[in-house]
Task: structure prediction
Amino acid sequence: MQASLDFRPAWARTVVVGLALLGVVTLGGCINGQSIAISSHDSSATSDDAAASAADSIASAAVPAIPTAGDVLIAGGANASNRSLASAEFFDPSSGQFFLTGHAAASRAGAIAAPLAASKVLLGGGFSGGASIRQFSLNLDGKVIGSAEIFDRATGAFSPAATMATPRMAFTATALNNGKILVAGGFDNAGNVLETAEVYDPGERKFVAVGNPMSDHRVFHTATLLSNGKVLLTGGATNLSGDTTNSADLYDPASNTFSVSLRPMDHQRAAHSATLLATGALAGKVLITGGGGGSSVFFKDSSAEIYDPASQQFLLLATFLNEARALQTGVFCYLSKPFSEDDLLACIRSALEHRAASGSES
Result:
């Protein structure tokens, strides 16, 4: 049985879904695609797919290596044949080597991984199956899943966690200070971008719905844990045609609810980065950079903004990235900075002066 997801413009939806599942490989092949089809079986599966599945099975039968503190877990994803993987491995910095570890029950790409405790990781959601490009269309042979598993570093094994109320992929997962995990947004099997969110409770081993939806549907958004324990969710695409938003929500773990930020971002953006600044005069604020925005996620942005949790406002910086970019990462660097703190403060002062001169609301 095959269900055709025919959202318009179809070529744009093909690119957005391909971005979530297959990355640059799919983007290069599907820019002019006309439709996306999801099926339970694909008769065109190649020998490469079979070989990949066999390799995955061999990995599952092997005795898992046991990681230690400081190792890096790499789980799931898509292989060279664009089939989702259930295997996992870890990188050992002391030896500079990768080692196969436990095998998940479900293969998944576009999933989330979030730390539950010092020795456990939650792996959830994603797309399970494969993808192929035929006649300029992206065909997905599988489904978005809602199951989650827990990887235990002590044993190198995965165990069932719980199932989300809504299967989702390309969503965010944020480890909260209370030990729970907030999962938000993404899209489901029908191609609906979601405004809902759930919280995984490791004590109860179940997902609980957040009390209310976000103010917007979001995929390719950001979720940043603030110093006050709340989570800032910004921007994202509101559908799979690439429309973007500048809205922002705050999640409060105490009430398990969302509230709309007092002021939206200055720019619409998706696939951007949001980085909590950890030290100095700007400690506790969030730097938001780049992304795709405006009328479409495909227009890249070189602007940057600062979010202030105290005022719940965004301030557009007077300085720009040297190059417009999307799908980038932003990591606070304790040892060096791309510009000095004085330079950043000067940019903020300049932006404030510009806002005052233009009569903008402060």
Observations:
- The two ends are 56 Å apart (CA to CA).
- Residues 1-18, 22-52, 334-339 have pLDDT under 50 and may be disordered.
- The first strand starts at residue 2 and ends at 5.
- DSSP finds four helices and 23 strands in the chain.
